[in-house]
Amino acid sequence: MQQVEDEMDSEYKKIIAEMQSVVKANKIQEEEHKKQMTNIDNKEEAKDLKNKAQNVKKKLESQTEHVKALEEAIKIQDEVKEFKVKRRRQWDEYYIKIACLAALRSKDPKTPVGACIVDRENGKIVGIGYNSMPKDKEFTWKGASSRSEINLINPKLKYAYVVHAAVNAILNKTRESIKGCTLYTTLHPDEDCVHAMIQAEMKEVVYCMYTRKDELDPDQKKAQVIFEIKKIQHR
């Protein structure tokens, strides 16, 4: 009987050992499976990260190209602006020279002034004038006339009689309307000139002060105020 029990006990121990071995093997398999699954997950995650990195890289490259293109466009735009400014200055100098030539026709011995009206849309000159007396035979630049009754006119009163260059240029216009045109003159306009410009609906005046000191006279300062109110560009 004892022998049988010993054999049963031995068999039982074998079974327990086999079961433990199986359990251990199962655990090992589970761990291996977990490792494999973890590796798979890691690979998938790594793949996703790689794809994301590539997408970001493409976006950055695209943005970089966009920035470069934008910088190039801005550079070209600046060059175009610079060219336009340079070209405008060249034309400004040309039209001012025309006004200077007109001033040579003035008989004013002290302040000869010339003016030139230009349609900047097509570059055509549409009016030229210089400061003059209404009629040289009756109103001389000395402030006196050959007629004895007005022979005592004060020479300083020439400003009361003179027709300004800008006004003459407007009166001598070569077409009916000079609306939107630019006035080029060798002297800063005064009130009379501005009034005529407003009536003619001119939009801009370009002047140089080669015939007089750079400080503006009171009537010229008033003209600047009118320019601001009527939004007439002046430079």
UniProtKB/TrEMBL annotation:
<dbReference type="InterPro" id="IPR015517">
    <property type="entry name" value="dCMP_deaminase-rel"/>
</dbReference>
<dbReference type="GO" id="GO:0004132">
    <property type="term" value="F:dCMP deaminase activity"/>
</dbReference>
<feature type="domain" description="CMP/dCMP-type deaminase">
    <location>
        <begin position="90"/>
        <end position="219"/>
    </location>
</feature>
<keyword id="KW-0545">Nucleotide biosynthesis</keyword>
<keyword id="KW-0175">Coiled coil</keyword>
<dbReference type="Pfam" id="PF00383">
    <property type="entry name" value="dCMP_cyt_deam_1"/>
</dbReference>
<dbReference type="InterPro" id="IPR016193">
    <property type="entry name" value="Cytidine_deaminase-like"/>
</dbReference>
<dbReference type="GO" id="GO:0005737">
    <property type="term" value="C:cytoplasm"/>
</dbReference>
<feature type="coiled-coil region">
    <location>
        <begin position="26"/>
        <end position="73"/>
    </location>
</feature>
<keyword id="KW-0378">Hydrolase</keyword>
<dbReference type="InterPro" id="IPR002125">
    <property type="entry name" value="CMP_dCMP_dom"/>
</dbReference>
<protein>
    <recommendedName>
        <fullName>dCMP deaminase</fullName>
        <ecNumber>3.5.4.12</ecNumber>
    </recommendedName>
</protein>
